[in-house]
Specification:
This protein is mainly α. The protein has 8 helices and no strands. The chain is about 75% helix and about 0% strand. The model has no long low-confidence stretch (mean pLDDT about 90).
Amino acid sequence: MIDTLATVLDWFGILVFATTGALVASRKQMDIVGFLMLGTATGVGGGTIRDVLLGLPVFWIAGPGYLIACVAVSAATFFLAHIPESRLALLLRFDAIGMALFAVTGADKTLAVGASPVVAVAMGVVTATFGGVIRDILGGESPVILSREIYATAALAGALVFVLLTWSGFSRDLGLVTGFLIAAATRLGALHWNWTLPRYRP
C-alpha cells in the first residue's frame, strides 16, 4: 500500500509537471517540438538533478516509461491547450499540485537510500522546484523560485512535514499525504490571497 501510494504520487507529479511545461509552450505559441521539449524537461528535470546529486541511476534512464508518458502528455496538450479559458490560471494550479507531489516524493526517495533527514528535506525542495526552473528558463520566463512568491517555501514546508512525521514514527502513508496537503495548501493559498515573502530593503 505504501509503495503503491508513493509510486502513484510520483507518476502523477511527473505528468502534472509535464503538463505545466507544455502549457508554457502554448503561451509562447511554440510548435509541437517545443511542447515536447518543455513538457519532458519539466517533468523529469527536478528528479534528474536529485538523482545526480545523490549518485543514483537517473530514474528515467532506468525506466524509459517516464519519458514516453511526458511525451504523450505534452503532445496531448498541444491539441488541447486552447480549451481552458485561462491557461495561466490552469498552469499555476497544476504547478502547485506538481510541486507539492514532488516535495514529498523527492524527500521519500532520498530517505529510502539512507540519507539524513536534513538531506531528504533539501532533496525534496530540489525535486519540487528545479523542474519549474528549467521550464521557466527554456520558456523565457522569470523563474518563479527567484520571485517573492511563496513557492520554494511551500515545497520546504511539505518536505519538512513529511520527514518529521516519518522520523517521529508515524506511517509513511500519513507523512506523504500530510506533506503533500501542506505544500499544496500553502502554495494555493498564496496564489489565492497574494501572499508573498518580504523584500530585502537596504
